[in-house]
């Protein structure tokens, strides 16, 4: 089993060492014969940034494969979903114990996510170095 997650995509733009690749993420049932009549079949168009020091080998419209290791994907999931969930639940339980009002506790718990996402935004350059995509032709 491969230790990387890959998607086929098309280069949309190249600028300043950053290649923007458009990928179409499809569900498994798009290959089904009745997918056009079913609400479960869906696809999403996403654009990912690939940092590359040598962009002269690539052209706009070129088909490439974008990949990331499973460790990178797990780290991204942890930062995007795992830590905020634990923070939300922890703050909710603590504020329920201290305040006793469910409505106020819920607002405090939701408000606790704002500093977390602010810190993520401030550290985006450092995070971008550890969580990044790679490209292969």
What keywords describe this structure?
137 residues, alpha+beta, 5-stranded antiparallel sheet, 4 helices, 5 strands, 29% strand
In short:
This protein is an alpha+beta fold and 137 residues long.
Structure, explained:
There is one protein chain. Strand 1 and strand 2 form a beta hairpin. It contains four helices and five strands. Helix 1 runs antiparallel to helix 2. The chain is extended, with a radius of gyration of 20 Å. The protein has a five-stranded antiparallel β-sheet with strand order 3-2-1-4-5. The protein is of the alpha+beta class and about 140 residues long.
First-residue to last-residue Cα separation = 21 Å
Q: What is the makeup of the main sheet?
A: 5 strands, antiparallel
Spatial order of strands in the largest sheet = 3-2-1-4-5
Rg measurement, Å: 20 Å
Structural class: alpha+beta
Mean pLDDT: 85
Q: Helix-strand pattern, N to C?
A: EEEEHHHHE
Proportion of helical residues:
40-55%
Tell me, what's the shape?
Answer: extended
Low-confidence stretches: none
Number of helices: 4
